Give the backbone structure.
Amino acid sequence: MEDVGSTPEYSGVIGTMFWAKEDLWAIGVTTDKSYQKKVDYVVLVPGPGFSGPEVVSKEPVTKGFVFRVTGVLRAASFASSKVVYVVEDARTGKFKGMSIRVTLTGSVNDRNLGLDEAVYEKIVK
């Protein structure tokens, strides 16, 4: 993944806050090829989540969870168009020191900045 948060396409998203409209799962993922039990980043996803050898932990996150976008990563491969927001917990500090990611399902140019409107809602200041 490459950092694209400073590009014109994504720089306006940095600092934007969202809240979860439903319960989520915080899934700790390792990138270690031998699947050591070390969390490299956390992915926020709606239920039922996902499993596999790369999953180190799975923790519920309740509806109303508020997060702020701090960065944007895009797949560095031509075979993938995956874009994720790197976020931080804006209220509780529950995941302090961990890299948290939320995957875009739409375009950064849509009204919810690419996040699924059924799951996340942009907080308008």
Notes: Strands lie at 2-3, 17-20, 24-29, 41-46, 55-61, 66-74, 83-89, 100-103, 120-122. The chain has a mean pLDDT of 91. The chain has one domain: 2-122. Residues 2-122 form one domain.
